[in-house]
Amino acid sequence: MTNEWKELSKQAxxxxxxxxxxxxxxxxxxxxxxxxxxxxxxxxxxxALTYDLSRMKIERPTAWDKFWRIISxxxxxxxxxxxxxxxxxxxKLGCYELHDSVxxxxxxxxxxxxxxxxxxxxxxxxxxxLATYIDIEPQLKKFFQIAS
Length: 148
Fold this sequence. Notes:
Strand content: 15-25%
CATH architecture of the largest domain: 2-Layer Sandwich
Number of helices: 6
Shape: elongated
Distance between the termini: 43 Å
Helix content: 25-40%
């Protein structure tokens, strides 16, 4: 079990399971002993593969829409381990770290970021901005290998 999973609170895990159940991504199967087992629905199986943390990636479209996605967070010190894990996850996804807790990405990544925010139970500390201008655009285009 990875450190990321160890940091999830029981409450966050329960909320995630309830959310999955309500979104019809999982189905409940009653066992002969009266317990229930949650199994992935067909749609849930597709999502599980998409959001496998060890293989999670953001799809790069063929053309850039000329919008910058800015992800900002102000996660409290008492959640430092989660904050650091999230920062590491953003970097692994290929985000550019502009400042501590501020990342930029040129392609649609809202679903992936929202998923991570919910998974780590830090959604209330995060903001997502869609911007058309940033003064370091040439540097960012070079970083993301976007043709000018």
